[in-house]
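hey so u asked for the seq, here:
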Amino acid sequence: MSELSLLTGVYANVEVYASLIDRVIENMRRPGSTDAQQQRLKLGNLLIDASDQGRASGSIEALIFDSLLRSDSGVQHVDLKGLGQRLLSGADDTASQRQLESLAKELEKERAEVASRLRGR
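ran it, structure tokens below
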């Protein structure tokens, strides 16, 4: 697989995950739609699966999501399992919203880095 193909795939994954997180944050601010609940459940389950790098579920998507959210040193900035569990429980606390916003910022940094590398090719 070429580097261009790999970077394009990473960029697409970042866009999908960032969009999901953004929709969940927006729905936390304006709750009520059934679509909002489905998105929340999807993100909650993805976060829980990513908390162990997809090992328990065998999810490659969770492994990719986890790798995008880790710092360069491999540190996870947010308790993914705890955040996922709170989303699944329906909690709309400000701490969860702040953590989601932090994840969104991390994904935006990753997106910008990949976009820069794609432009440099």
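The two ends are 15 Å apart (CA to CA). Helices lie at 3-29, 34-50, 60-69, 80-89, 94-119.
lmk if thats what u needed
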